[in-house]
Each structure stands twice: as C-alpha cells, then as structure tokens.
User: Fold RNA polymerase sigma factor from Streptomyces silvisoli.
Amino acid sequence: MTASNTHRAIDAVWRIESARVIAGLTRIVRDIGLAEELAQDALVAALEQWPESGIPRNPGAWLMATAKHRAIDLLRRQQRLDDKVQLLGRELETGQRGEDPHFETVLETDFGDDLLRLMFISCHPVLSTESRVALTLRLLGGLSTAEIARAFLVSESTVAQRIVRAKRTLAKEHVPFEVPEGPELADRLSSVLEVVYLVFNEGYSATAGDDWMRPALCEEALRLGRILAELVPDESEVHGLVALMEIQASRSAARTGPDGEPVLLLEQDRSRWDQLLIHRGLAALERAEKLGAPGPYVLQAAIAACHARARTAQETDWGGIAALYEALAHLAPSPVVELNRAVALAMAYGPATGLELVDQLAAEPSLRTYHLLPSVRGDLLAKLGRLAEAREEFERAAALTRNERERTLLLARAAKCRRTGEGGR
Assistant:
C-alpha cells in the first residue's frame, strides 16, 4: 500500500474510530479537551508509523492503546497517579498496543456507555447552540475544523473559537462525564436531539451559500441519530427523530434539478425517492409510536410519513397533515408550526383558509426576518389571482433569504407573477 493510500485509510479509520477513542479517554482523564488532544496525538503517531509498519489488525484499539499510554505518561509527569491509572498501565504492559484480547474486550464493553456520555457532554445545555453543534461534529463526527467551517460557511477561526470556548465552559462548570438520570434525562436528551436535527436541517436546506443542500451533513446527522437509537432504544422521541430524518433524506435525489436548482415538494419526481430510506423511516416511526404518547419529533415524522405514503402529490392526505400540525402546535407551540399548518390548511381547504392564518402571523416578531413567511404568503396570493401582491411577497422573501439557490427561485416566481399579470391586462 502506498503512503497516500495509507493516509486515506487512516483518515477513514479516524472518521470511524475517533468518537470511540475520545469517549474512552474522557472517561479516564475526565477532561474532554485533554481527551481530544490525546486522541490527536495518537492520530499523529499513526500517520508517522503506519506507512512503515502497515495498518494494525484492529486500528481502533491501536489508537486507543496509544492514546492511553500517552495519558498515563502525562499523569505520571503530573504526579497524579491513582489506582485506575496503575491498572491501565499494567494492562497495557502485558502485550503490544491494541493486541491484548482482554484490552479489546474492555474496549467493546465500555464503548456504548462512553459514547452516550460523550453525546450528552457535547450537547450540554450550558453551551451555546453554535458551540454544541461545532463540538459534536468535531468529537462525534471526526470532522476537522476546516470541514465544519466549510459546512456552515463561517471562518475556521470562528469554529476553532467555538470549540475552545465550549471545552473551557465544560471544564469551568465541572460538567460530569455521565448519563443523566431521572427528570434531568428528558431535558438533556432534548438538547442532544436538537443538535442532531440542527445538523440535519443545515444539510437538508442550507441557510446560506450557493448550494441548496449539503448531503454530507445529512449523512452525519443520520449516523448520529442511528447510533443514539441503539444506545437509548426505549426513548420514543429518539426513534421519532430518526424516522423524520430517514424519510426527509429519502427525497434528497429529487430535491434538486440537473443544474442544482431547488425542486419543490409537490413538483418532485417521486420515483426518485429512496424507498429503502422510506421503509427504514416508517419502521422507526412504528417503533416510536409503540413506546408511548407521541412527542414533537414523532408528530413531525408522522407528517413526513403522510408525504412518503402518497404515490402522487394529489394523493397526499392534507387534512391529516393539518390535524397533525394542530396536535404539534398544542404540544410545542411556535409560529413556524402555525405557518406550516397554514400551508396544510390551504392545500386541504383552499388558499383563502390558509391565507387567513398566515395574515394572523404577519405581526409575529420572531417571523419578521423569516423568509418563508412572505414566500408562503406569496404562493397563496398567487393561487388567489392576486398577482401584484404575490410578486411583492416573493421579492421580499428573496431579499430575506441568504441561500443563493433559493433567492433565484423566489425571484423567478416573482417574475412569473409579473408576466402573468401583464399578460392578463
């Protein structure tokens, strides 16, 4: 294997194993920043040694053993040895790094709990939303600072600062490396789910830039969601989020045209929807519904399922979708939910019905800069034949969005309203 092939293999191994290694090290040193540094040191050692020695039989165990050796050396230098460190030292001295069968057994046994703890600490509510997202992608996704920066269209220095601040905050607040229990579990789990879905949404509908979608972020969020569903199998909302992401991701191939332009839901070629992802999503939704009363993610997954089950746009059960949005509004009220409910009502009972609710939302402060409010209003006005007003709404929406693909689409709709209106005079 050439050096370049080895480096590509190391990169792939790191993507797969980094979260596992960092999670195990955090349990040992109780410092997430130090744990990542030790894991990075092990990665550097792999880059130096593997091109000559070859990739080990168990590369993840090799990385973990190398990092643990460095952790022990560091603790010895700091004269803070304890029984655990001595035990780890004896284990590692019994054989080659990563080749001791007992060590590998311990690694596998601890992996699930450690990874779950790492998820909870990376998504801790004490951190800002931006910091939670950056830290999660860094520690659990194995993404570099540059990759995270490109994904969210910010500078590398901004991402680096967010990660550094997050680590300092976790240390300052003495956030324990543990899975929360009792009443705290629901709030903490909600924070984890929020971060995963934020990552997915940024990939599914990019808020800014030249691309309508960033599939790599969707894939990373789906991977984290599936792992979480395995680690906490009895939590309905976890399976609900996985179901929602699976079904939404099934439409990815149909959401863009030949030149990368957006294709709206009702105009998509449904033969391009991924039936395997739909099947997985519906199975996850069924599992979620069996675990208890539906929460917000389960209800959103049920809405996505209504679209997935319709063979054509005309067969969509818009009345059922409107009812699900009403239930969601009672459970998790928000102006955005009401806006989506207005769309469903318009599809089920006519644009005038939807417009009535949209107009009630016009004064909502949180929607003042939300481009989808004038976009939806423009669509409903156009269907009612009020083309001049519709054009103004589409132009206003285009001015508010930061995504270039979406801006082009909205301006095209505004131009169509102008042409149609002029043609009717």
Remarks:
- The longest strand covers residues 208-209.
- The chain is about 70% helix and 0% strand.
- Strands lie at 208-209, 402-403.
- Confidence is low (pLDDT under 50) at residues 95-109.
